[in-house]
Amino acid sequence: MRAHLPAVLAALLAAPLARADEPVAKAPPAARAEAPAQKKAARNAPKGKKKARKAKREINGPVATFPGFRMLEDGSTRVYVEISERVPVAEHKAEGRIAYRIKGAAVPTPNNLRALDTQFFNTPVARVQLVEDEEDVDLVIELKQPAQPSHRLIDSEGGVVLQVDFPAQPGSTAKSKAAQPGEER
C-alpha cells in the first residue's frame, strides 16, 4: 500500500483538474522525456527584467571599507569608516542628514554599501550608509533629531579611520544599573 501512496496522491490531486466531458490526451513518449529538462531550464531562466550590473570601475586610489556604528559606555554614539589612506574629508549638513565626502575613494565590496539601521538605539542617528558618487564616497548619516557631532581622522594600521562622535542622549548609557537587593527602582 505504501509503495502506491505517491501515485494515488498524485491521481487525487490531478483529478479535480480534469473535466469529465474533456478527453485526456497523453503526451508522446519523446515529449515526456523532454519535460524534466524543460522544467529545469524554466526554473533557471531569469525572471522578468534583469538588473543591469554596474561596470566595475578600476580602483587606483583610497578604499573605504567597514562602515560601523557603536554605542559607547558613556551613552555617546560613534559612527566610523576605515579608509586605506589619508584623504581630504568635507562635511555637508542638511536638515536631518550629515554627509562626509571622502575625496577620491571607492568602495570595492558591495556589502559595504548596505545601510546600517540604528533607529532602535537611544541615539540621534537613524541610519548610516556609504554611498558611491562618480569619483568620491559619501558617509551619509540620517538623523532622528538635530545633533552636533564632531569628526576626526585617526591613524590606524591599515590607513585611517574617519570617526564621527555624537554626544550622549539624556538617559542613555550602555551599562544599565540593576537594582540592588532591598533597593527600589
What share of the residues does DSSP label as strand, in percent?
A: 25-35%
User: If strands are numbered along the chain, what order do they take across the biggest sheet?
Assistant: 3-4-7-6-5
Name the overall outline: elongated
Q: From the alpha-carbon coordinates, what is the Rg to the nearest angstrom?
A: 29 Å
Work out the helix count: 2
Structural class, please?
A: alpha+beta
Tell me which oligomeric state these chains represent: single chain
What's the rounded overall pLDDT mean?
78
The helix/strand series, from N terminus to C terminus, equals HHEEEEEEEEE
Query: Main beta sheet: strand number and arrangement?
Result: 5 strands, antiparallel
Q: Based on the structure given, which CATH architecture of the domain at 64-166 is correct?
A: Sandwich
Write down the CATH class of the domain at 64-166: Mainly Beta
**Low-confidence spans:** 175-185
Percent range for helical residues?
A: 10-25%
Distance between the termini: 67 Å
Q: What does this protein structure show overall?
A:
- By secondary structure, this protein is an alpha+beta fold.
- It has helices at residues 5-14, 29-44; strands spanning 64-71, 77-83, 89-94, 97-102, 116-117, 125-132, 137-143, 150-156, 159-166.
- It has a domain at 64-166: Immunoglobulin-like (Sandwich), CATH 2.60.40.3470.
- A five-stranded antiparallel sheet has the order 3-4-7-6-5, with no helix packed on it.
Task: Give a short overview.
The chain is α+β, with helices and mostly antiparallel strands and 185 residues long.
Task: Please outline the helices and strands.
Layout: H1 5-14, H2 29-44, E1 64-71, E2 77-83, E3 89-94, E4 97-102, E5 116-117, E6 125-132, E7 137-143, E8 150-156, E9 159-166
Antiparallel strand pairs: 1-2, 2-9, 3-4, 4-7, 5-6, 6-7, 8-9
